[in-house]
Design brief:
555 residues, disordered N terminus, Spore Coat Polysaccharide Biosynthesis Protein SpsA, Chain A
């Protein structure tokens, strides 16, 4: 795998960090800043130089006018007043409009503090004065004039009385600031707790089997066992169809999944966008529970002549605990308790305790050369993708002696090796660059000849065995994939594989140009929590006119 220099570890900009804060935090910080400005202005206006008398000041003003360094800033200050649309009245020492605005800022802050103290009567009085002052300013602005003394004097006096009362109620500056800091901290804690709840509930929703998918599996199972014609379509394959499964001149794709609807979208979108669908061969592997309904679905539907092979993982008897480290680890009582009872380390996020990460279907990708010993090149696809372009060109890409072709994901720092692996562990630290570029599973070109020559499966076993205590990485198939294929990955054009449609915002122009759209993340398009703005790309390849789809999903 080609290494690229680690270009950008800059922290996010102030503007971006400011916008990421909750709105109420930004409001309170703005009020604090306004309060500080008011206090500074009050100090400057109310503290004349004790060594300078009025007569001395007046006498010296003429002589200093020509020599004052402030004159050199006149143009700059005029630019500020023009940019902020300041009027002469606002700049006047006795400006009523500025006094009203300053009082409004201060009063709004005291309203927040009074609410916190449950002093509702004071909140009502102060809010009424704020509205009164705002009304005076609005009237003056609407008529293009200045705030007159007769209408502003009483408003300023009444507001001053309430602000003085706020001080007597010990809403002074130091206490107010402390309370606002405490309130900000409390709001941030609440925000963090709600974010954790959202993550937990989202993970639970992502793990659950939707009612429609369960219904589809049950009905397809019934169809399979009561309809011998469907069974004969797979048992009585023509010699040509059988030879297609081993013909290296065709385009071979493999998908490992227990989701019938998702797999049908992968096959359908590939077939529709293929220039030669009769040359496309799909190798599907599922589990025993979904084996019959999966066969029933593809026996009932024809995808433009695409050849489909369906196997179940239980038939691969050579995949046993004596050969597969993941299966050996599953026999450990502590591992079973941690991942399946949910009583493991509570400090570990719930997503890492998801049993799907130990599913054999999830790790089957590391045994592709043994599952298909006669094939030389295949394209591995996840079941949460949609194909938008013809993929035949993938089979002509020169991998330059590497085992895999994949799209790199290191445009951001969180997709580098140090985010997936524990680089404090001496084994990881000694063998891998923490800033090495990560890549994504989901659409991968695999040279099985080079795979066998370089014994990638053996490398995968080596690292899995050393991670029995989960100290090298937590869970999933990507971390061991990064280790097993380290230095053996050819970077592909990012247009081949567009990621993020299941958890983040993706540019629409990027989506339109993408060959494969990947809904990686919890918000899958077949779930209710899926991102609505991206569901249409997936829905385009679901046949909602199919009777079984209507029975299970349209009610």
């Amino acid at each position: 795998m080609r290494r690229r220099p680690f270009l950008d570890q800059r922290r996010p900009s102030f503007k971006r960090r400011w916008q990421q804060r909750p709105w109420w935090v930004r409001l309170l910080l703005s009020l604090l800043l306004a309060l500080a400005c008011v206090l500074l202005l009050a100090v400057l206006l109310g503290s004349p130089d004790p060594d300078t008398s009025p007569s001395t000041s007046a006498a010296s003003s003429g002589s200093e006018a020509t020599s004052s360094p402030l004159l050199s800033q006149r143009t700059y200050l005029e630019g500020i007043t023009d940019a902020l649309n300041m009027t002469d009245e606002m700049l006047s020492a006795g400006s009523f409009s500025r006094q009203l605005m300053d009082q409004i800022y201060l009063a709004k802050m005291y309203v927040v503090v009074a609410k916190e103290a449950n002093n509702l009567q004071f909140v009502v009085e102060l809010s009424a004065q704020v509205r009164r002052a705002q009304s005076i300013l609005a009237h003056a602005a609407a008529h293009g004039g200045t705030v007159m003394e007769q209408e502003a004097e009483k408003a300023i006096r009444d507001m001053s009385v309430l602000l003085f009362q706020a001080q007597q109620l010990r809403y002074d500056i130091s206490i107010t600031i402390m309370k606002l800091k405490g309130q900000i901290q409390s709001l941030e804690d609440k925000s963090k707790a709600e974010a954790e709840k959202s993550t937990k509930y989202g993970q639970i929703a992502a793990e659950e089997l939707p009612k429609g998918l369960y219904c589809l599996g049950v009905r397809l199972t019934m169809e399979w066992f009561k309809n011998p014609d469907l069974q004969r379509k797979f048992s009585d394959r023509s010699p040509a169809a059988q030879s297609n499964l081993r013909d290296n001149g065709l385009y071979h794709f493999c998908v490992f999944s227990d989701n019938i609807l998702a797999v049908s979208v992968v096959v359908n979108s590939t077939a529709i966008n293929s220039r030669h669908p009769d040359k496309v061969v799909f190798h599907l592997v599922t589990d025993d529970l979904n084996y019959a309904p999966m066969k029933a679905w593809f026996a009932m539907n024809n995808y433009r002549g695409v050849t489909v092979e369906i196997q179940k993982v239980e038939d691969f008897t050579w995949l046993n605990a004596s050969y597969v480290p993941v299966l050996k680890q599953l026999q450990n009582a502590a591992t079973q308790k941690f991942y399946f009872s949910g009583s493991g380390n509570r400090g570990t996020p719930i997503k890492f305790r998801n049993p799907k990460y130990l599913s054999m279907l999830n790790h089957l990708r590391f045994y592709i050369p043994e599952i298909y010993p006669e094939l030389q090149k295949v394209v591995f696809l996840d079941d949460d993708i949609v194909v938008q372009k013809d993929l035949s060109e993938l089979f002509t890409i020169n991998l330059n002696g590497n085992v895999m072709g994949a799209v790199e994901t290191c445009m951001e720092t969180f997709h580098r090796f140090h985010k997936y692996l524990n680089h404090s562990h001496p084994l990881i630290r000694a063998h891998f660059d923490p800033d090495a570029c990560g890549w994504a599973f989901g659409m991968n070109v695999l040279d099985l000849v080079e795979w066998r020559n370089k014994n990638v499966t053996g490398i995968y076993h080596y690292w899995q065995e050393r991670n029995a205590d989960h100290t090298l990485w937590k869970l999933g198939s990507l971390p061991p994939g990064l280790l097993a294929f380290y230095g053996l990955v050819e970077a592909l054009d990012p247009k081949w594989h567009v990621l993020g449609l299941g958890y983040t915002t993706v540019d629409l122009a990027t989506i339109k140009e993408g060959a494969v759209l990947h809904y990686n993340g919890n918000m899958k398009p077949w779930l209710k929590i899926g991102m609505e703005k991206y569901k249409s790309f997936w829905d385009n390849y679901v046949d909602y006119s199919h009777p079984l789809i209507q029975q299970c999903f349209m009610r």
